[in-house]
Specification:
It is built from 3 helices and 9 strands, in the order βαβαβββαββββ. It is of the alpha/beta class. Bound molecules: inosinic acid and magnesium ion.
């Protein structure tokens, strides 16, 4: 049986919000070079759409840390894919799909901060403040959402549904 997914944020709303975020970033980093770090896997769709609206010089990097099993956070983080280039002295934007307990972004923030960037901004597509445990907040958040498990536009449930062009709330079926 397939999981039930109800559209929550439309493709158009996402698109419009990304344009607003890009305007903000273009103002912030006008004429500068910026290293954009995409956190894999969830932020790949958001990052791809966002960077194509930036009009300053962008260098791309990717990192991956994970703590997730199904819909439950285990709390334990593992670095799967570290930065493979120096960001020392760089303007850095760290892009994440969703800020939930905040453990992942706090871990990645500390990891990048240790590399001595000139400055570090956190941009997340979604913010679920109700579940925050770690002390971290985004400089820019696309949408603040209630405590629901969402999929689509890069976000997954057991690696599925990342391809959906909208963000939906999922009710997983019991059977697999
Ligand atoms: P945190 O460490 O609890 O903030 O979790 C962040 C990570 O958990 C995100 O990068 C996502 O991969 C995953 N995550 C948290 N909430 C959701 C959700 O509603 N849908 C899909 N993935 C989620
Ligand atoms: Mg993720």
């Amino acid at each position: 049986m397939s999981d039930k997914i109800t559209e929550f944020i439309s493709e158009e709303k996402i698109k419009n919000r990304i344009s607003e975020i890009a305007v903000q970033l273009n103002e912030m980093f006008k004429g500068q070079t910026v290293t954009v770090i995409c956190t894999l896997k969830g932020a790949f769709v958001f990052t791809a759409d966002l960077i194509r609206q930036l009009d300053f010089d962008v260098r791309m990097e990717f990192v991956s840390a994970t703590s997730y099993r199904g819909t439950e956070s285990t709390g334990k983080l593992v670095m799967r894919y570290p930065l493979d280039n120096s960001v020392e002295g760089d303007n850095v934007i760290l892009v994440e799909d969703i800020l939930d307990t905040g453990r992942t972004l706090k871990y990645l923030y500390d990891y990048v901060k240790e590399k001595n960037p000139k400055n570090l901004k956190l941009v997340v597509l979604l913010d679920k403040p109700d579940r925050r445990v770690a002390e971290i907040q985004a400089d820019i958040a696309g949408f603040t959402i209630p405590d629901k498990f969402v999929v689509g536009y890069g976000l997954d449930y057991e690696q599925k549904y990342r391809y959906l062009p909208y963000i939906g709330v999922i009710e997983p079926t019991e059977e697999k």
